[in-house]
């Protein structure tokens, strides 16, 4: 142990020190999930910037009317079917853009759990469904609603709710808490008196809500879905349905597993890994994860292992001394 001048000779002075400033433990997947801000989430960062910037551009150039859809007269009789591809370009007002940006920021943990390649694959492969299904369903529902449903607000609402479905299914909650109502002491005393007189319980039942740390995300999502009631409910419901169907591998031509289409690795700045004849590619895919976990385990058990080694060495030394004494 190094001799530090002025160190008081207590039982803390002989504490084992094993400091190596040159070695830094690799971050584990759990540490990456708990990283603050937008670290390790380039796709989410681009989506967040686009959500805010597109709303600002639509307001500055006063072209909001080009993004919204009215089945009549845009589709019939003007035949402006290009709006079915352009309605998700941006939100028309700042309130919806704010709620959408908050949702995108909350769902950054999905990219940390998946990786940027899978995140980009999900957005690109579900984009045709989230873009074309809401206008198509609105066209079908309009005559069934006696022409009351005719308006589709602009903005990438379907994409965000498709990601929200993955957030709901992939990310577990950290803690849970309950919010309930309780009666006052006077009401409790009156209830006890009534119980003694009548022999029956007349206490008012309390209302208890079981919430988690993810509840705030769902509250923001409900605010976005109800912002332009009932027009915004359709793209929100379609986005959630597309996300659930993608996860269940029900979308035609798409799959959430490794057998489905994936964005090329060079698009997101990664290196393509090809499977060898002995299946080495599958092992290499999880090689980084294994190294991170081994590094974290080694770091966490370093102090404990050194202490056990010292105690084991001391025990072996004492046993050797006893055996020598027995021989002599």
TrEMBL record:
One of its GO terms (molecular function) is serine-type endopeptidase activity. GO terms for cellular component: membrane. The keyword Ribosomal protein does not apply. It comes from the Eukaryota. InterPro entries: Rhomboid-like_sf. The chain crosses the membrane at residues 47-72, 84-107, 119-138. It is a multi-pass membrane protein. Residues 272-295 have a biased composition (Basic and acidic residues). Its main location: membrane. It is found in: Membrane. Keywords: Membrane, Transmembrane, Transmembrane helix. Residues 272-328 are annotated as: Disordered. This is DSC E3 ubiquitin ligase complex subunit 2.
